[in-house]
Amino acid sequence: MSVMRITTHQNFIGGKWVDSVTGRTYQVHNPAHTGQVVGEFQTSGSDDALKAVAAAKEGLVVWSNTPAPARSSIIYKALEIMGRRADEMAETITLEEGKPIADARGEVRRAMNIMEYAAGEGRRMFGYTTPSELPNTVAYTVRRPLGVVGIITPWNFPLAIPTWKIAPALICGNALVFKPASATPLSAVKLLEIFEEAGLPDGVLNLVTGPGGQVGNALVESPDVKGISFTGSTEIGTELYYESAKRLKKVQTEMGGKNAVIVLADADMDKAMGGIVSGAFGSTGQRCTATSRVIVEDEVYDQFMEELIDRTSKLTVGDGIDPSNDVAPLSSQNQKDTVMEYIGIGTEEGADLVFGGRALSGGDFDDGYYVEPTIFAGVSPEMRIAKEEIFGPVLTVFRAKDLKEAIDISNSVEFGLSSSVYTKDITKAYEYINTVETGMVHVNAPTLGGEVHLPFGGLNASGVGQREQGTAAVDFFTEVITVYIDHAAEATERARFI
User: Fold this and answer.
1) CATH number of the domain residue 162 falls in
2) Residues classed as catalytic
3) Does the pTM exceed 0.90?
């Protein structure tokens, strides 16, 4: 009987692959086949995080003084390497996170788009000049890197989310300590390999795997870390923001969502249905921008429900590595337990379970964390399944008499990440745009994603701090310095500033 060889992966600190100070490791398993070990990773502690911070301080000296266009060349090189390794990266994502391989390939493409955009910003690190109110004075602004920045990322997009933080942070001249989600560290290891091969100087990008309570807290508490970029749960993000603010760190948090789609009577039903089904059940519903609520105008409610159930029934569930499957396993036993708990809560609250609701078993299903796509109808806004983030393939459906009531339902949760309306009425579309309380608004399109050159983020419990992506990312990862130069040949009377 052959023994499966398990690869032990190390931290990356100061340009070297090293074991953790703790001497401990942990295993990550394939959520589709839980007996398959993806790899073994370092169970790092605060000492490892602080070693990485010290290495980043040294790397910062070199990197911050490297001209931004030269930084670009390294990121472009990393982009080329990722292109060569794209299939491998996609398979890694599916192997450790579980999502369908088509979604994983899309994630790799998105990571590459982000790198391409960030590299281009190396020639657009603009300040501005402005007339001074003083004679013989030149006034302008320049951008400087924050310094050492902590990057803390979730498991559901183990490549794209780290990349959309790391690439802009690097082009701005920062040095980084990257703490990936404990559930999906292999994608992070391979991302570090790519930057290492691209020639990033030692200490500029450091990787520390392990529990957030140790590694993440050390980054927040270190006086040498000047900024934190976090994506994850609202509970942890809120605490991290509070602790960082106490220490006057610059911080951005992208947190939970409870995204709603409004379907009005005049909607293109086929277009709406495609966006809703993919938004709710694509990536097994494990996206912060996933569609978790649908609010349907009374006039078309019955037609909508019939079509929704029909389309959902045709989805195939199975191992994400098989491209024929639409819905893959949940990422972990904990996620499966959480989803099943919420399905039970929805039933107890009196919602009508019209499709799904089962944990799948038998055959290959016994090896993974499978829950079938689930739809609740007859949902009211006060129910827990209507308000709380489930993060799985569960869709709740509401009735509304008109657009105003639909918007009221959409705005009735603490989150405000993404939302959508399907309508052919331009007046109603603008009424929705102007009154819905989300950071990203879609018309006749799914709640999903966002383009790399535009800001990404939400309102209320969905996020605090500056937006991610686009020029907003440059704003976060730099400090603006205002410069005054008096070029008079001799001393002159100067105006007094208030």
Assistant:
1) 3.40.605.10
2) 254, 288
3) yes
